[in-house]
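Shipment paperwork, digital attachment
Item: protein structure file
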Amino acid sequence: MCGIAVAIGWPDAEITVRRLVEGILHRGDVTDPVVCPRKDTAMGTRRLRIVDAEHAIQPQVSFNGRLAVSFNGEIYNHLELRKELADLGVEFRTESDTEVLANVLQMWGYRALERLVGMYAFVTVDLANGEFLAARDPFGVKPLYVIQSGSSFLFCSEMRPLLTTVAVGDVMLLPPGYALSRKNCARYRSPIYPRADVPVHHDPHVLDRVLSEAVQIRLPPGLPVATLFSGGIDSTLIAHYTRQARPEAPGYFVGGETAPDYRYAAEYADRTGFDLRLVPFKPDSEEVFSLIDHVVEVTESFEPNLVRGAVCSLFAAEHMHRDGFRVALCGEGADELFCGYPPLEVAFNQSDVDGRPIRDECLDLMHRVSLQRVDRCSMRHQVETREPFLDPSVVKYALNVDAEALVREVDGLPRGKAALRDLYDLYPDTLPSAIRDRTKVPFGEGAGLDVSPQDSAWKARFNKAISDSDLRDGQQQFEGFSVQSKEELFYIRKLAQVMDIRRVPHLRDRAWISFPVMQNLEKLKAFAHFSL
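Attachment content:
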């Protein structure tokens, strides 16, 4: 929805916040006035106008004037919460979900976080005493970073503005599902935490309803919506459920007719009349490779899995923006929840006990990889991308269904996302069996960016650009960042040119899972799309 910048107890707060907002102009289409409600406190927003576009100016203030909120994201159940508050006598000035957030926090305090369904990062300030509460949604769909100096705090939606505005101090991330106050930083109760762990019997009809509702609640009233479409199992389901309510909604496919994923995307489009829009992409061109500097700067990361996918995600977001879309839906979260990755397929094929810890790690890392890619790439072009698979109802279903509903053996190999494949059998006329039966292909690879095989043209470029001795020197130069390959060294050098990475401690904590690769190497080699 936007980007926020908030200073609390910070000298020159107004000037500092204005500088931060200048660094996140790409995240919205209007800059709301910077408000200084207390001494050394300032709140600023670069807003992407979606909900109550003309009146949702931030910060929004609670019904009694006590709390002011700067908010990035969307509260999907804001209409239900609004009705509940109205029944309690709360009067509203706008139709915005930001005002609803301010009022639920005023009415229920910290416990309000248990009630929120959405993607969000916000900072609320108590105007009477200067106390604050900052929180981030349970999966970290929306980012929030902070510099603390004694009892002073400076928040922003991206890292680089903080680094370039303030000369000293580490940039810390607020972890997903955590709330921060002046006195405490702790995980809060939410619709998905703590886990209920109530066994779920897999029923495709139930999952069909749950996923359909998750999509419907994310469709923006009064605005057109698009989907990020690859012709894979997940994105096809998102397109399918979106078009039940919005048959005109198009899908953006990155790549041309020679891309590996194209034949699947085209089959769905031919069968249903889907508005399939091709986003030109020449994976082996110098033009694409030359974009790495920009991609690394946009994503604020050197993680290969993030950067590779971001090359394609940026193209898609740019074309959506050109066509006038502010909201898009995607299939992020399905692979982590329903076991679309080889390590998860292998682990769950062995047992629930082996699979669940690995899946938890994958889910915990999403905010550092796939969700960070989605946020930075879409917001760079003023598009808010939403993830129906991360709806609490879908998450609870996936986490509590038994392993047999997630992974089944086919031709002697474990094949994940069995529960999602079952949905295709409910709609045989519109959901092609060819998509149902296909194997997982990474987004970039499906668009034609050949990154999985060890001798790929993509990786060959890094081998050409960086010698073995240069790699050793680079590993010493960036000691502590666990640089493993020439590709990673190439990226981290680019990132270090645009921001002081040594002031960002979480970059040293790499986005890796603890799956025992070497012990399962022979099983993993059976998956054509698996790469070390």
